[in-house]
Amino acid sequence: MALDRVRRADAYDIVALITTVNEQQRRVAMHGVREELIESQAEAIGIPLHKMVVGGQGGNGDYVPALRRALDHFKTRGVADVVFGDIFLEDLRQWREKLLADLGMAGSFPLWKHDTRQLAEEFVRRGFKAVVCCVNDPALKQGDVGSELDERFFRSLPEGVDPCGENGEYHSFVYDGPIFRRPVAFVVGETVYRPLGAAGATDGAAAQGPAIPVPVTSMPTKTKGFWFVDLRLDGPEPAGPVMQ
What we know:
The protein has helices at 2-9, 35-45, 60-75, 90-102, 116-125, 151-156, and strands spanning 17-22, 49-54, 81-83, 106-108, 129-137, 170-176, 186-195, 225-233. The chain is α/β, with parallel strands linked by helices.
């Protein structure tokens, strides 16, 4: 939706999409989405993809240097602004802006402080299509992964769960909408549970995602783990690691 808004405003020359990929799993950090799906997504949108590969344990010690290298790559090409889809996490925005300022760049936040329920309604109204690829237990449950982000899904969210998953309650893979030239063809595979502390879960020491400073959420209990659904391109099975 952030990309949709900046495109409609015609205020930027968009040169690339940046996605964080785990070096070992070759999947999007925290989302668990396969690398080849992100490549297909960018191709369908029509904007070059820059994969920010993060190795090691995936914490700040690995994430921040990779991010600096990725941003510096574009800074040397004359890029001055980076667009983010953040909505209301103040600490996260401040973290991003400080890092950008250190590099002599600036951030743009087209969705900032917009009502998240209205954003969810706009998502459906604009014709976006997405599937839930990861949920945070106990915010959501196994049956929620693989769900379409449609009116039914947003109406069914439990009290306290942000409609846009801004507190990390869920993550999604967008496969069609007004920013796409064609939909991404995929199939929904097996569902996998990763307890907190297992390889691939965000426990800081063994994280796929960055250990960026975000506020404590208002979930009813502490995170126990994450449910993932394995999304695959609809076609020949690609070579590469599978989700264990």
